[in-house]
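Entry 14. Structure prediction run on the chain below.
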Amino acid sequence: MSIKVSLISLGCAKNLVDSEIMVGHLHQAGMQVIPEAEKADVVIVNTCSFIDSSKEESIGHILEVHQNRGMRKRRKEQKLIVAGCMSQRFSKDLPNAMPEVDAFIGLDQVTKVAPIIEEIYAKERGKKDAPVSFIEGKSTWIPDYDTPRFRLTPAHFAYLKIAEGCNHPCTFCIIPQIRGRHRSRTVESVVAEARRLVAEGVKEINLISQDTTFFGMDTWEQRPNPRTPVDSSRGTALTTLLRELNAIDGDFWIRLLYTHPAHWSDELIKTIAECPKVARYIDIPLQHISDHMLGLMQRETSGAYIRDLIQRIRAGIPGIAVRTTFIVGFPGETEADVDELCQFIRETKFERLGVFKYSQEEGTRAAKMADQLPPKVKEARWHKTMALQKEIAREVSKSYVGRKLRVLVEEPGVARGEADAPDIDGRVYVPKSLPVGRFAEVTINSFHDYDLLALPQGEEPVVYKVAKQAQ
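Output returned:
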């Protein structure tokens, strides 16, 4: 009888790909993956640890699984494994802090999950035995095109992780300490995986990593003689990858997520403009516009650079939708900094924008800074910036009325346009008769803040969300 495993995946799309790889290896080992945690022999919680709220969510799910198995006599022997970023980040502390867990695995153990399950399932744990930790050092692994994987997204879209880790020195961020140094896959590996996804019927490929614009730059730096150029596109650079993906036969979108402003170039702008399959959408977290704050955050950019870059992107790629995120409440942030940020948002009119309240993360340089701001100040600044963006979002949505739009139908009556990434952006409400997982041409006839409507007279939207924090 095969072992039944249930997996709870938390956090971002990059974590979801790790979950998909675990499920792929579980299937390969002959284990049965089921959605109901209460019926499983083993429950895996793939955790997030980016900010306080994500840690709290992860801990909440772990404790819930533990409490539920304690209430079911037949499931008291159920094994609980904690994986992912929180497990990797607190690898030295968690085994003592969470005795209710049976095992902790890190980011480099996602391909070893099946033998780890077999090992802990075969061994009876004593009441005084501490949880087993399989985490060894810093993360260095990256997936390849032939890494077993079972997609957990709808059939029509997929995430494709092109690199892992991060080299940036941002003072607020713990990710480089969790996921290690940046390491890129080869162009050939990514293209091979993309070809398979398109052959499977995928209509949207979302390129993800901690910094997609750094793709290939680590292999450039590691050459024996860095002064000898490989080719005009800096070897395995993002521009090379986008052009090769664009050349794959088929009707599909390529969406670029998680770009860093410091690595944009005119060549990248030109490449996107010349590749029709690359969605007219970019995700470029800017974090702030004030030079004072960008310096404290060590963002490797200036306010003038950012303003110029956004102008060049919009001029070079007609019809582009720009998504960004900002952080408010960072240590030392003044009212003048916030005013400058609001003025920038007002002038730039980002099509998509989200705001985070600064989270004081243990182990980061910002956590040790003086002038930490109280929660009430962070909350007030978040409300101020989001209220401003809501007004702008309404203007942006209104501008679509009367226009024809190509959309990808997500579920009956609900679709997304090129300007809407999965889960984080708005929706387009369409006739329920349009086939799911296919592209369609619709005419926008109304809007609701962040969402667009392309409905026949009298038909109501399937779901209506007033607003989304992630906007």
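The longest strand covers residues 321-328.
Filed with the rest of this week's runs.
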